[in-house]
Write a structure and sequence with these properties.
Layout (H helix, E strand, L loop, with lengths): L2 H18 L3 H11 L5 H25 L5 H21 L6 H36 L10 H18 L6 H9 L5 H26 L4 H21 L5 H19 L4 H38 L4
Helix pairs in contact: 1-2, 1-9, 2-3, 2-5, 2-10, 3-8, 3-9, 4-6, 4-8, 5-7, 5-10, 6-7, 6-8, 10-11
Organism: Saccharopolyspora rosea
Membrane topology: Multi-pass membrane protein
Family: Belongs to the 4-toluene sulfonate uptake permease (TSUP) (TC 2.A.102) family.
């Protein structure tokens, strides 16, 4: 397998993670499968092994900024960690040999499409939270829903490597609508550390994780994350998230072996939707800007 193309792929994925906080497993696993021809189980295991080294970067930033709800983490970890570890051992339920690889490919594709839906849900929920001004630094944790989120999210991550930074955060927003946005992101990144480590350990035991492959990806991913994080405050995050959504949609449909014409139409529709959404957001923003400008122009008595 080519060394430098893998390094470049790792750099691009790391850059996306540093810039948007999303796209680790959702990008690296399909790239390994679709571009480099890695079998799906090895791609999942290797991506999880690489994520163990990638996740602490963002988690440390949020820990220093004190945007981690440790009371929420403690209710996620008890179910997420064992579920993530068990994911590798549940894969034989899909079959074995070529049957397993084919079904796992479909499962990863399904997880990617769920991640795209989760990105839309996250945007809609964030807008509702903004309109309702519902954020509360003292929002209480709901233990039972949080334990269930850890269980479901852990299983998905353990079996497909997708979801630790996309699906779980959406479920957290649904269960805890008053949590502050930065606390949701920080908490999700921190809980992902033991979850991804447990899932990677399960795949190492099963023999799916290829450490050489993971190490090659990390050569590019680590500097990519650093550069992405440096640029994250200047780049238009909304445009980047829409671009990521289009890429995930295309990858998911290709893993499902959807015809190229249909995939292209679906991606084009998503791009048009993104353009409409951006235009509507600008139109809503203009009256507020005009009102502020008019207020500041008034003479002071």
């Amino acid at each position: 397998m080519d060394f430098w193309p893998l390094v470049l792929a790792g750099a691009l994925v790391g850059f996306s993670v540093g810039l948007t906080g999303m796209g680790g497993g959702a990008l690296m696993t399909p790239i390994m499968v679709l571009v480099f021809g890695v079998n799906p189980s090895s791609a999942v295991g290797s991506d999880l092994a690489a994520s163990v080294a990638m996740k602490p970067v963002g988690a440390l930033v949020h820990h220093r900024a004190r945007t981690v709800r440790w009371d929420l983490v403690k209710w996620l970890v008890p179910t997420a960690v064992p579920a993530g570890f068990a994911g590798a051992f549940l894969l034989p339920l899909f079959g074995d040999g070529h049957v397993l690889q084919a079904r796992l490919k479909l499962a990863v594709g399904g997880a990617l499409l769920l991640a795209v839906a989760g990105m839309f849900a996250r945007v809609l929920l964030a807008r509702r939270r903004g309109e309702a001004a519902a954020e509360d630094a003292r929002a209480r944790v709901r233990p039972v829903p949080t334990l269930l989120i850890g269980l479901v999210g852990g299983l998905i991550v353990g079996m497909t490597s997708v979801g630790s930074g996309s699906l779980i955060i959406v479920m957290l927003m649904l269960a805890h609508p008053k949590l502050r946005a930065n606390e949701l992101v920080g908490t999700d990144l921190v809980q992902a550390l033991p979850l991804v480590a447990a899932a990677a350990a399960g795949h190492l035991i099963v023999g799916d994780a290829k450490l050489g492959l993971a190490g090659t990806v990390l050569i590019g991913a680590i500097p990519g994350i650093y550069l992405g994080a440096k640029l994250s405050t200047r780049a238009p995050a909304g445009i980047l998230r829409w671009a990521l959504a289009v890429l995930l949609l295309a990858s998911g449909l290709k893993l499902w072996e959807v015809p190229n014409n249909t995939t292209a139409l679906a991606c084009a529709a998503l791009i048009v939707l993104g353009g409409i959404s951006a235009a509507v957001r600008r139109l809503r923003h203009r009256p507020a800007v005009a009102a502020v400008a008019a207020d500041t122009a008034q003479p002071r008595v």
